[in-house]
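From the shared-data thread, chain only:
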Amino acid sequence: MRHALITAGSKGLGRKVSEMLLEQGCSVSINYRSDKEAVEHLKGKWAHYGADRMHFFQGDVTKKEDMQRFVSEAAAKFGRIDYLINNAGPYVFERKKLADYTEEEWYEMLEGNLSAVFHLFRKTIPIMRQQKFGRIITYGFQGAESSAGWIYRAAFAASKVGLVSLTKTIAIEEAENGITANMVCPGNIVGEMKEAGIDFSRQKTDKETPVGRSGTGEDIARVIQFLCDDNSDMITGTVMEVTGGVDVINRYR
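Structure, as tokens:
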């Protein structure tokens, strides 16, 4: 049985990823920061998948000790880690220029979106090397691959652009070990659409998205499911945008 480790997998975009992997027969280890109520709800909702296939861990992605314990617990419980889905990532919602950021906001963006992934890589890649198999997924934003500037989102963008390079480097370094690494870049998926399905989205017209509907958590989960497939080993070091044609950076300045 494949085992997936997912940060922030109890709600938002991560929830659909967790659910889809459970549906395909995987066991999942899900990190969450504080929403115990959401976790208890999911334990009940997903009970038919089998409690022995689910592992919930409370921890903060900005704290390396938490992430190290998360990996250790997950590996001890399931004996392997096949998929590492780096779904968590803090964000500053207030529109402010770089010079107006506090030091705390700056370091939260770097630690949560870049350093946290480094710490998870260090703990999971040795396990994947032993297995001669692994699938690593990181998250970016539209335009991240070209190092686009993003006004009012400077710290977040800088951390994600750095993560592009890190993802591509890992893809090259670990290819000989059967490990792939790819980045998925969601478009403007907000509110209820983060946990919604495609059929629900098609019931509502979204004039801001060229394809005519909003993106959903299911759209992101489907891409991740494909990248994690055993036969997707030729796809590594890629940055895949899932935007429906929305120009996220220029549209939301």
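Helices lie at 13-23, 36-45, 64-78, 103-131, 154-173, 198-201, 217-228, 248-251.
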